[in-house]
Amino acid sequence: MKIICIGRNYTEHAKELNNPVPATPVFFMKPESALVRGNLPFFYPAFSNDIHYEGELVLHINKVGRNIIQKHAHTYYDGIGFGIDFTARDLQQEAKAKGLPWEIAKAFDSSAPVSEFIPVEEFADLGNIGFSLSKNDQQVQIGNSSEMIFNFDSIIAYVSRFVTLKMGDMIFTGTPAGVGPVTVGDKLEGFIGGRKVLLCNIR
Ligand code: ZN
Predict the structure, then answer these.
(1) Which site among 34, 49, 62, 79 is 20 to 30 Å from 94 CA-CA?
(2) How far is it, in rounded angstroms, from Cα 199 to Cα 103?
(3) CATH code of the domain containing 128
């Protein structure tokens, strides 16, 4: 499986990192070794001094597809989860400054904790899913799928023009404003529609 991540999909987050709002989705990938399930802790890596959380809604892909037409895109995912796109912001800024790829900042081991998936049938409106991230019981990010620049179906259509989607793949759909650093001892919790779905302790 692979993890595809959409960058800059919320206007306020693009602004907070001084990035332009994109005209087409921006995506990058994380390997299978980035995935963490089961609320296991995140171990702060030695290669960075500025690991940031990015709380995101995550799509679970349930069939193979390429060049997917947007109106059929909703049949290619069956669950919505909460994920944290851990980012080594210091390494990312260096890479950006040099025009280099982001892998060392984004694709490192355990950089993608993901909750259980909630079946799509349980949502009244996929275009109106509220979610939030708390750090040490303080809400630090709040978002809604209605605020995405590119919605789930347009993401699927766009990405599948370049990369075949396979069963079990996951798509991180972008983070709202409020990203920030973590330190050892922090507790992160992800919520979808007010329901706690993810716990991640920083060790
Ligand atoms: Zn992200």
Answers:
(1) 34
(2) 25
(3) 3.90.850.10
**13: containing domain:** 3-201
What is the Å distance from ligand 1's center to 183 Cα? 18
Dist. CA 184 → ligand 1 center (Å): 21
Q: What is the pTM of this model?
A: 0.96
Give the Cα separation of 136 and 114 in Å (integer). Answer: 19
How many structural domains compose the chain?
1
Q: Dihedral sign, CA of 155, 52, 2, 169?
A: negative
pLDDT tens string 28-79: 999 999 999 999 999 999 999 999 999 999 999 999 999 999 999 999 999 9
- Please report which helix (H) or strand (E) contains residue 159, including its range: helix 152-162
